[in-house]
Design brief:
The chain is α+β, with helices and mostly antiparallel strands and 484 residues long. The chain contains eleven helices and 25 strands. Strand 18 and strand 19 (343-355) form a beta hairpin.
Length: 484
């Protein structure tokens, strides 16, 4: 029996469960894209699949709505694939394991993919329906939203006629988004100069663990610890107190997820162990005190390992790495003076890797002000130049600016009040939405973004509210019914 069988809205839940069975990590959307094509064809609808694997499914308006304005319903098909340490889940083939706990659908050991699987499920339920009144619909499913929005960037505007777009990639019920931050990702690559390890040193591993992590846009204001930045502090403090050789570092898995785990491997003399352990103990006290309200389980682990080490980073490489990690800006950089409580600009040092003869540090910048985004990027580039490292901008996407007049915004506000007897909140988000790209590519588009309540997005333990799904779906259906 299906886990979600019998839970309303039933067809939305059916499709959501089907989607959880399909591998769809960012940049690996072939199977989910083909699934959507198959569903569209099975329903006898017009289907377009482009070179970026974006899928557009077109459905005529129901009786009495044939000549109504065409509405684009949009969501992205990829998901952030994160799992707990020690999990043997294989995202390339294993279905997402989830449970129903009260009002929530929860994935315990992995991300759930409700971002943005729930959008796909809602749209498919509408496309297959026989009794839902609606105007002509263009269902737009994009690829690679989570790691660069390349699907939206490669979208062919000629394939879409609608001038109203409802993006279903929001994560808070009762809030409609009308503006979003732009973003950029960049990589610092530090060339590794190697040397032979000193005689008599033993191998130890350092690990920063116990952090919450989360979405680097939606949850950057929660004050959560960044394991990469904390490891930078560990390496710097140890460097002041003892002589150690560093030969490996790795942390985080996605630039748009606040990193939860970072490890580094070092060599030290046996007689320096007590001093090193004393430094680690002191740092553990400091980190727990600093993060008591956000990451109370933070911990720096320090233990012996049996590695066969032939080469370590030379001191110059180690110093450059320590400088880069500690100097790269991280977290909130500015708050909006126009919208109370809105983060205006931020950076997330999301991924550190040791790859062949380079150490790479990947950041994700967000800002609703283009010049501030550029300033943060320039600062990181300056750090790279100062330490003699390579700097590369890997992707950039525009902000979506608030528009004074919007038919769809006012309609959603009116409909929400009708249904739930309270005012919807009109807001902006410190995260990238594809709406910014659509705003550039699709002329005169009237857009909003909405969605149900989700929690812990981009981290294991991600959950979504069942009752919120139902209310959000009902709101969407009522809005479509009114566009006549």
């Amino acid at each position: 029996m299906a886990v979600l069988e019998g839970i309303k809205p039933e067809r939305v839940m059916y499709y959501f469960e089907e989607i959880t069975k399909i591998p769809r990590c960012s940049k690996h959307e072939e199977k989910i894209s083909n699934f959507l094509v198959d569903v569209g064809k099975r329903l006898g609808l017009e289907v377009i699949q482009d070179k970026a694997l974006n899928v557009i499914i077109k459905k005529p308006g129901t009786k009495g709505y044939e000549n109504s304005p065409t509405v684009i319903l949009q969501g992205h098909m990829d998901m952030v694939c994160e799992k707990v340490q020690g999990s043997n889940h294989d995202f390339s083939m294993d279905p997402i394991k989830f449970e129903v706990e009260g009002d929530y659908i929860v994935a315990k050991e992995t991300t759930l993919g409700a971002d943005d699987g729930i959008a796909i499920a809602m749209i498919l339920a509408i496309l297959e329906s026989k009794d839902i009144p609606h105007p002509p619909i263009e269902a737009l499913f994009t690829t690679d939203e989570e790691s660069g929005m390349t699907g939206a960037k490669e979208l062919e505007p000629k394939n879409l006629k609608g001038k109203i777009l409802i993006n279903l990639d929001s994560e808070e019920e009762g809030i409609i988004l009308v503006s979003c931050a732009g973003g950029e990702r960049n990589i610092i690559s530090i060339p590794i100069e190697w040397k032979e390890p000193s005689e008599g040193k033993e191998c130890f591993e350092l690990a920063v663990t116990g952090l919450m992590g989360g979405h680097s846009g939606m949850e950057i204001d929660k004050g959560r610890g960044n394991s990469n930045k904390l490891m930078g502090r560990v390496l710097n403090r140890l460097n002041r107190e003892i002589d150690y050789d560093l030969y490996y570092i790795e942390g985080g898995s996605k630039p748009n997820a606040i990193p939860r785990f970072t490890k580094a491997k070092i060599l030290i003399l046996k007689e320096q162990y007590e001093k090193a352990n004393e430094v680690i103990s002191k740092l553990n006290e400091e980190f727990r005190n600093e993060l008591i309200h956000s990451d109370k389980d933070v911990k720096v682990e320090f233990y012996k390992v049996e590695d066969d080490v032939h080469n370590v980073f030379c001191d110059n490489t180690k110093e450059k790495l320590i400088a880069a990690i500690n100097l790269i800006p991280n977290g909130i950089q500015s708050m909006s003076m126009a919208i109370k409580g809105l983060v205006e600009s931020s950076n997330n040092l999301g991924v550190i890797n040791t790859v062949d003869n380079f150490i790479t540090l990947e950041s994700s910048i967000r800002s609703s002000v283009g010049t501030l985004k550029q300033y943060i990027s320039d600062t990181i580039e300056l750090i790279a130049k100062t330490i003699g490292a390579r700097f590369e901008r890997t992707s950039s996407y525009p902000a979506w600016q608030y528009k004074e007049n919007s038919y769809i915004r006012e309609l959603v506000k009116e409909t929400y009040k009708e249904l739930y007897n309270k005012d919807v909140v009109v807001s902006a988000i410190h995260a990238g939405l594809e709406c910014g790209i659509f705003d550039e590519k699709l002329e005169n588009m009237d857009m909003i973004s909405l969605g149900p309540n989700m929690y812990g997005v981009h981290a294991p333990g991600e959950r979504i509210s069942i009752s919120s799904i139902e209310r959000t779906f009902n709101l969407l259906l009522k809005v479509l019914e009114k566009i006549k």
